Each structure stands twice: as C-alpha cells, then as structure tokens.
Amino acid sequence: MSVPSLAALQPVPSHFRRLWRAESPLRRVLLVDMLVWGTLLNLCAGGIALTLIAHDAPDWAALAAFLVPLPYNLFLCAAVWRASGTGHAVLTTGARALAIVWLGGVFMF
C-alpha cells in the first residue's frame, strides 16, 4: 500500500487557505461552501445525533455528534464575512446577514 504524496494532499489545505485569506469569490463561499456543503454536513451531524438518541445512547454522545460541525460552521461564517469585505454595500451586508442567520439556523434543526 503506497502512501499518498504531500502534493496529492495539497488541494484541501489550499482551499481552506483561500477561504481564510478571502481569495475565493463571495458567491462561491456563500452558495457552495456555506449553503450547500455546510448545510449538508449539519444535516448529517443532526441525523447522527437523532439516531444516537433513538438508540438510547448517552445524551453527551448525541450532543457531541450534533456539535461536531460547530468549528467548521464558525470558519465558514468568518470566511463569508471576510470575502464580503470588499464590494457593493448592499451585497456585502446581505451576505453577512445571511451567514449569521444560517449560523443560527443550523442549530435550530
């Protein structure tokens, strides 16, 4: 079994680096990364948490499963905030407001 080279693993860290440095377009960060992938991750975590509750797992395990995506959610919200730093005031305010509403909404599951 061969070990993947470091060059093969480079796209993932570079994507997060681009998000943090606000080098990705706001449209991609908001629509693809946050609304699609972030929501999908939260739905999966919520489903796992509900499954754990249904199978009488300890409450702490269900809570932990539910909160696993929290760091990524905060990162995405910050990435949207940073990506909207330049541009038309109405669009940047709307994107920031949507990011905050989404962040609050994912925990109302």
Task: Annotate the secondary structure layout.
Elements: H1 11-20, H2 26-54, H3 59-67, H4 70-83, H5 89-105
Helix pairs in contact: 2-3, 2-4, 4-5
Strand content: under 5%
Q: What is the H/E string?
A: HHHHH
Characterize the largest beta sheet: strand count, sense, and whether it forms a barrel: none
What is the number of helices?
A: 5
Q: Give the low-confidence spans.
A: none
Number of strand segments: 0
Structure description:
The chain is an all-alpha fold. It has helices spanning 11-20, 26-54, 59-67, 70-83, 89-105. 20% of the residues are buried.
Quick structural gist:
Helices cover 72% and strands 0% of the residues. It has helices spanning 11-20, 26-54, 59-67, 70-83, 89-105. The longest helix has 29 residues, at 26-54.
Search tags:
single chain; mainly alpha
